[in-house]
Amino acid sequence: MKKLHNLQIISKLVATKLLSTIALLMRNFIANFVRILGICKDFAGNRVNEHGNVPRCGVVPKFSDLEVIALGITAEAFGFDSENLLFHRLHNECKEDLPNLTSRRQFNARRKLTARLAEEIRKDVAIAIDGSEDVFCIDSKPVKVCQNARAKRCAMGRDNTDARPDWGYCASQGLHYYGYKLHAVCGIRGVIHSYDMTAASVHDLHYLKDVRWEYHDCMMLGDKGYLSAEIQKNLFEAANITLEIPYRLNQKNWRPPTWAYKKFRKRIETIFSQLNDNLMMIRNYAKQSCGLFTRMAGKIAAMTFMQYVNFVNHRPIGQIKYSLI
Question: In the predicted model, is pLDDT for residue 256 greater than 80?
Fold first, then answer.
């Protein structure tokens, strides 16, 4: 009887501690939501009106567009990959802090509508961190949408045939997968400046056609997947972009990559690892391609905002785990 009584006391203590930890997490969530909302207001400029909304006809929403963006970024930063769980906790634990909170259905729809505004704000934040760089890294990573055995019955992309997933192969992981491919360009400090998503079957070289319109007078560091003498010449002549790529072993002028190349290339590989581990990009529950693209954009925006918080607090921007503590 005494042992049973002690077990009951211990279980009550554990339950009490767990509840207090959960309450502390949501208080921290609201505090960082306010912080991220402040950053959105600082960088939104004249894109929104005094209420934080994109000017449009109709009823003025009480929960503004900037609040929708800030809530989506905060949710991704805290690892809420289920909107149902997020709104359940907000309605039950933070109702007084967010009295004008919109419904989950409206949040989902407005998050997609404000994706362009969110990306424009994110780009301004990235420029504020390292807008004067002239050396960039370019790479791609696989984004699976389902297991290979379920690819034939995957419904994603049926609403938009131009954005359907496809089969692809990742040479670095030796992986055949069904889904999309994330292409990204980051500075040597580790901030993503631009990105795009294509079907997994699209070759990395095709993204370089877009790069020449966004960048000029700089150096790009890529892996062997971007090796093409014609593309390198075209980039240099069109935008004065020097594309630095290591030689293959069977090439005549082979030489080992320099120490600086390997050091700077590690930046974008670290970013992809953080997107997988900290922001759980490897895990998604989107049913349609539009929802998947919006979720991926939210994760990249969350990483940029956490880097900016570290930047203004004079901390290493790569330590995103400690940015919102």
Answer: no
